[in-house]
Amino acid sequence: MTLHIDIPDENLAGILAKAFKNRSFLAGFVITALVAAVAILSFFWTPYDVTKLVISDKTQAPSLAHWFGTDHFGRDILSMIMVGARNSIAVALVAVGIGMGIGVPLGAFAAARGGTADDVLMRLNDLVFAFPALLSAIMITAIFGPGAFNAIIAIGIFNIPVFARVARAGALAIWPREFILAARAAGKSRTLISIEHVLPNIATLLLVQGTIQFALGILAEAGLSYVGLGTQPPMPSWGRMLFDAQTRMVVAPWMAIFPGMAIVITVLGLNLLGDGIADILDPKSRRQR
Amino acid sequence: MTAYLFKRLVIAVVTLVLASMVVFAVLEIIPGDPARLMLGLNASADQVELLRNQMGLNAPVVLRYLHWAGGLMSLDFGRSYTYSVPVIDLVRERLVVSLPLTLMALALSTAIAIPVGLFSASRSGRAGDTIAMGAAQLGVAVPNFWFALMLIYFFAVWLRLVPAGGFPGWSAGVWPALKSLLLPAIALALPQAAILARVTRSALIEVLNEDYIRTARAKGLPYRLVLWRHALRNAMIPVVTILGLQFAFLLAGTIIIENVFYLPGLGRLVFQAINQRDLIVVESVVMLLVAAVIVVNFVVDLSYAVVDPRLRGRQ
Amino acid sequence: MSLLEIDKLSLTIGGTRILRDVELSVAPGEVMGLVGESGSGKSMTALTVMQLLPWTAHATGRVTFDGIDILAASEDQMCALRGDDIGMVFQEPMTALNPVKTIGEQVAEGIRWHTRASRAYAEERARKMLDRVGLPAAQFPLSRYPHELSGGQRQRVVIAIACALKPKLLIADEPTTALDVVLQAQILDLLRDLVAENRMGLLLISHDLAVVTEMADRITILRHGEVMEAGDTARTLSEQLHPYTRQLAQASMHVPARARTHEVGQGKPLLQVDNLTRDYPGRRISLLKRAAPIRAVDDVSFSMAPGQSVALVGRSGCGKSTLARMVLALDKPTAGTIRFRGDTLTGKSEAELKPARRDMQVVFQDPYGSFDPRQKVERLVAEPLHVLEKKPPPAARREMVAHALHEVGLSPSDMDKYPHEFSGGQRQRLSIARAIITRPKLVVADEPVSALDVSIRAQILDLFAELNQKLGIAYLFITHDLTVARAITDEVMVMHDGKIVERGRTSEVLDHPQSEAAKALVAAAPDLHRAIAKKMQEQG
Asked: Chains with 3 or more CB pairs closer than 8 angstroms to B?
């Protein structure tokens, strides 16, 4: 499939002006910033200490003292959600970093070289795509045991072919442009052209994919922790909190409701942000609205 | 067969072979002795040696791989150590839960997403579209296992309409079995449907901007017909691509969802096997799921050729 | 009585004014030519008649077709008209057909919808219509898909769809702009015959004054959404009463002044091409078999003298762009040698090519696609300085860019802008500035003016001529447009099926072509002088 890239004819100021008129971007930006702020805040302050178990306070319904209630060890759910945000963001962010850092150069290289190199890289891509993140996590955990680090690796590995594909498709759409021919006529090497002309023109595409993978990473981390393959207790994580909530649904539904909402809101914010960026930078999609 | 299809078939086979090597290799590089890992620390050296011989661990790597891969082809995955039965029997037993669940979820997701996508695309920018896409945006953000918990809380705990979990088995009758799969299927399907609806909508809108849509309208066809006859088929390629990817996600999703609903499917089997260090079972189930993903991707490639005559070639 | 009557039509789209008080009429059997430069609103006029405007559009005034008030008509009424009484042909044949449906389905679809006929009957009529537009059943069965047809053939299918039900009015929006001159002449002939056969009214929209003059009984000249002048074709263009009409006509026929011209064989050749061949691997037809390789350039030899301006003309797909890319060392030849200033270019590495690249630059067709939108003009124009042995320091670099911008008629202060801040004509000037910054000996220009409006085109041709005179740069001009070749080159080479079939002084080749290929090109090329003279005879 071919990819069509509309390169917007604007500089940064124009883009920013548009960004603040785009509802999707604004909403996504505000939500994401709030989540990030809460995660940072949790390093310095949380309403309660999440490492302390207060059995006398166990499974209390939401109240003024505990806004989101407490869990079966009497820990404050709100505090745990705050600390969990840190964990979710870190895992997803590093996984995106792994995917981008390895996938983008591979994809750009495949597009620049073409031929056998391209074929081989794309076949390897197909191979990794055949292992859904959860499956690789299962394999990795089966070998090395569960943990946040292994979750990062599993999600990160799955991100590599995603970014490689997007970068390659974007670069392939840029390479036939006349300005690339002009650069080649100026004697520039393929690597230099990739860095100077191709990457800046597909950066927005990668940014949008980055927010999508970030959101997917949050979901995947939660899923892995939920089944016990991700972050391990006592470190609070949203997925693990849901696992603990599962058997107590009847007596303490708040234990499930609030961590779940935290995931939904974070993912929603990131997706809105990505939609907004795509919207602002791709005049074609904006015309359709 | 055209060059395109043959090429895709070769790619699928090569990917399958490589994937089997990866699965095999990963379990090879496990630190420590797999036999000892399985038996635990208390096993005696003799016991370990016996198991090593049983597992064929003393043969050279290449031979062991060939033996294992050859077994896969005749559906012989080896014997589960903890259950002491052929792995294939375990898998068969669990597949009758996991496969119907995946297919139900896929069908449900498609049945919801395509009409919503069509509806939204044909009303692009108006109120109906905004509401539908807002809902989809929310749906994409919901983790399926949390959604599953909420469904249980609402339908099973509050309304007591369906069982909260467990599986009566197909022997208990088709309806009770399906009923116990219904909530899990919905939990799996809705978030995927949200993604698919968004893709369908944007693919349709992209196609609706094409020149040939204007040609079709200049023929005097009403908009509705243009949408059905000209736009939908051209929009199918990205939609089918996403459907293929979703199959992989659904497979992975079933693994988690089965744990939420206590369904005796492949997912439960895998987690039990991990806990009991029954590596042959883990290896087999992973290989099976990977093979399923590869086969589905090949089917997706085939469907491209059905949709797009340019891939079919002539004579 | 008129078939189509447009009265005081004004149109805004999303608040932007597109048309103002447009008046136009087409009588049965009449060809009305609607001429204008890009952005003049000619396509929007057509889409208003079809009621296929975007939903943010708002039209006022009166559009009457065959007694029906189009602006007040319901969507159902319009559906009944479209494709039945009004047919439309679009500019871009490559994308105008649905890629997943056969041509038979696409032609028969409208017939079935409007006549409620059986599939068999509709297919029979579709067959007849395809025969009529020159796609006989033997080669073009109904089961063909669009991708199996060439651009010209696809445009015939689009015409078949539009004319299948013998509409009273046919609207053709730049129907030949995407085709080469020979195909253009064929398609125009077909349209002319169809109009005569069925007494259709034809609204022919084009930017090309010569094409419209050849075809139209009356013309309407549009600019910025307003009608400048309208009237009988012969009188309007011979008298040229309106200044804008005069400006358009003169720009279409513009020939830049050039004092010196160059002949072949003056001293040592600058560029020497010997037996150059380029094959592309054939399409894979089965697993191990490929179709025979396609020979894009076939045993081509020629030479160019320093300062000489040479045109390379030919139909689309004749191999001229491939040849140009090989000369620029952007594509590797299968066989043969290219020598530039005496050095062999073929088979050299990118590093070894650097000295040659310094003396050889390029100007492309698309003024929008030939600049990286993310970089400022300074970096873009300075890009060829990459080949210099010693990279100039930033201050010197800015100085060189400023000088180059000045030479192409732009201000040095433009170097801190982004490309999107310039118009199409200005961007082509930027492109030329980039090409001359290293003071090259040869500039290869691939259709450098074919994407520009006529008045801009005249200015850019003047600039090319001036730089040729002032700096002594040799040009290899690739073009399908013989007017451009005539305007700016000393010699012309005619290319056909990968071979150079004729070469000689420009005026000689264009006035007395010898080869079949050259004759066909010359005969098909629209020529405003000739067209006006012919119309004068017809219309008295």
From this structure: A, C
